[in-house]
UniProtKB/TrEMBL annotation:
Keywords: FAD, Flavoprotein, Oxidoreductase, Transit peptide. Its cofactor is FAD. It catalyses: glutaryl-CoA + oxidized [electron-transfer flavoprotein] + 2 H(+) = (2E)-butenoyl-CoA + reduced [electron-transfer flavoprotein] + CO2. PROSITE patterns: ACYL_COA_DH_1 (PS00072). Residues 129-219 form the Acyl-CoA oxidase/dehydrogenase middle domain. It comes from the Bacteria. Its EC number is 1.3.8.6. Pathway: Amino-acid metabolism; lysine degradation; Amino-acid metabolism; tryptophan metabolism. GO terms for molecular function: fatty-acyl-CoA binding; flavin adenine dinucleotide binding; glutaryl-CoA dehydrogenase activity. This is glutaryl-CoA dehydrogenase (ETF). One of its GO terms (biological process) is fatty acid beta-oxidation using acyl-CoA dehydrogenase. Residues 232-377 form the Acyl-CoA dehydrogenase/oxidase C-terminal domain. InterPro entries: Acyl-CoA_DH_CS, Acyl-CoA_Oxase/DH_mid-dom, Acyl-CoA_Oxase/DH_mid-dom_sf, AcylCo_DH-like_C, AcylCo_DH/oxidase_C, AcylCoA_DH/ox_N, AcylCoA_DH/ox_N_sf, AcylCoA_DH/oxidase_NM_dom_sf. It comes from Arthrobacter wenxiniae.
Amino acid sequence: MANSDVLNLDALLTADELELRDTVRAFVDARIRPNIAAWYEDAFFPVEVVKEMGALGLLGMHLTGYGCPGRSAVEYGIAEMELEAGDSGLRTFVSVQGSLAMTAIHKWGSEEQKNTYLPGMARGEVIGCFGLTEPTAGSDPSSMATRAVRTETGWVLSGAKRWIGLASIAQVAVVWASTEEGVRGFLVPTDIEGFSATVIEPKLSMRASIQCDLKFDGVRLPASAILPGAKGLRGPFSCLNEARYGIIWGAMGAARDSYECVLKYSLERLQFDKPLAAYQLTQQKLVNMLLEIQKGTLLAIHTGRMKDAGTLEPVQISVGKLNNCREAIKICRDARAILGGNGITLDYSPLRHANNLESVRTYEGTDEVHTLILGSHITGIPAFR
């Protein structure tokens, strides 16, 4: 809504960036909004939209070469914001596919691996997943128990992963495992013997998305399965930072959609013979939402410009991820309150967004982890243990 961009943040975006925003917004309006309530209710991920996203250039869009779109960090962020205004689950698909699986291959893979997988993944013809988190280790990946042992012909992979997005529909899994030479990444075809993916359900959050438990029961991999450039935790962390960056934008999409929903509702809903929006307490809620959305979007744009300039530091990503998730979930909850009892139905988006943001707030680093990253930065004292 025009009156909601009170700081005129659109003036900070180029004509190409605004055109991309309008294109993705139109896709969300046409393909996601009319269906998302049913998808969420039925815990259904619409696989048919994957190739449509590929055709729009949304998969691996910040990567260059190998059939990838080669768009800027800001353009990628704008797309993530618009997708999450539809639903976090759909934005998460683009993040897992592009920021995690494709980035791992693009950044750390061999030329053969890049040429084999990236073009099909960019088109949405091949789906990837990213196996890092384990049943016993989320925030502390250094303690991972999944192990790969070298053999004469390659590797044997054993262990388990949890909360792995897309795994049951993926054709290739990027799996991180401990080896004698430290943490290494492997490309694992999901139809290989010994690999299994079990969908985690039922869920109260991210219902229009897929998360799985993975098991590797002596999976035999050729020597060519290893990502040659990734040694140590720097490999997976570099991918996580790409995903965390997208969340900075995405969370504001969910917040903006919730705000716009209740602004319209409060102008139309009558209580005591006047619209809800005419009451001071309602206006206070709406103003507080708008302020945080504007500030969070400004933070996202600034972070994106730094990323495009090559000056963005990981601690700065933590600023955006921590702040924007924390504020977005509060906005969605306050929006639900304005809706009253109607707000607990799937006719309105805020509670669905709030439930989804419980997951977004947790994955790619919890509030606590990002708080301690910032705490270590400003004090010089690591406080993780």
